[in-house]
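Action item from last meeting closed. Structure (206 res):
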């Protein structure tokens, strides 16, 4: 049963990737607005219902790696090393994400998103969702001892940092300028349980 379940999951993942790859190729070849859902399904040799079982909308086809992006953000909080402060961990992960998204290979997709009002709107909605997920992870960490409002504020700052760095001529320099400001906001948000403003407090050994 476990083997069958694993095979089924691998098949689903392969189908999802095939649909996403096909959609992106068609969008870049013909233009996003010129390609419909039925075009993608036919080219990928799947039913329209199968496509919608993997992707909720046409816009979602362009952001196929969105779930991985969000997981990486939350893991920067939940998976950071014992005693590692939060903000440097987020700085490191955001830099890695920005480098990936601003690579030369990603430029055609970025231009396509920038040229489409529908894709820009969808991108903005995803960033709000990512900020909410990051805020939830921060607020749930007992070692960080910040209010929900502080967690949501810092999360928004971090997502804005990602956006601003992605638009900058030198993304790393932009993040190096922005994150000290985020660090300062984090330090004054609320004293930690240890009584030292800005300390993330001790983390359990793993």
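Sequence:
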């Amino acid at each position: 049963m476990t083997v069958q379940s694993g095979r089924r999951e691998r098949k689903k993942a392969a189908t999802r990737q095939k649909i996403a790859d096909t959609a992106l190729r068609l969008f870049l070849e013909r233009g996003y607005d010129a390609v419909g859902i039925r075009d993608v399904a036919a080219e990928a040799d799947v039913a329209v219902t199968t496509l919608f079982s993997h992707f909720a909308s046409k816009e979602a086809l362009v952001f196929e790696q969105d779930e991985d992006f969000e997981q990486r953000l939350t893991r920067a909080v939940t998976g950071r090393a014992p005693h590692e402060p939060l903000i440097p961990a987020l700085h490191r992960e955001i830099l890695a994400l920005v480098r990936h998204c601003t690579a030369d290979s990603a430029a055609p997709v970025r231009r396509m998103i920038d040229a489409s009002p529908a894709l820009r709107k969808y991108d903005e909605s995803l960033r709000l969702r990512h900020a909410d997920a990051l805020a939830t992870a921060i607020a749930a960490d007992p070692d960080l001892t910040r209010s929900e409002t502080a967690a949501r504020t810092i999360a928004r700052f971090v997502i804005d940092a990602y956006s601003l760095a992605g638009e900058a001529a030198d993304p790393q320099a932009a993040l190096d300028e922005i994150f000290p400001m985020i660090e300062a906001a984090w330090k004054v948000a609320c004293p930690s349980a240890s009584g030292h403003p800005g300390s993330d407090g001790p983390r359990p050994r793993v």
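Note appended to the action item: The two ends are 32 Å apart (CA to CA).
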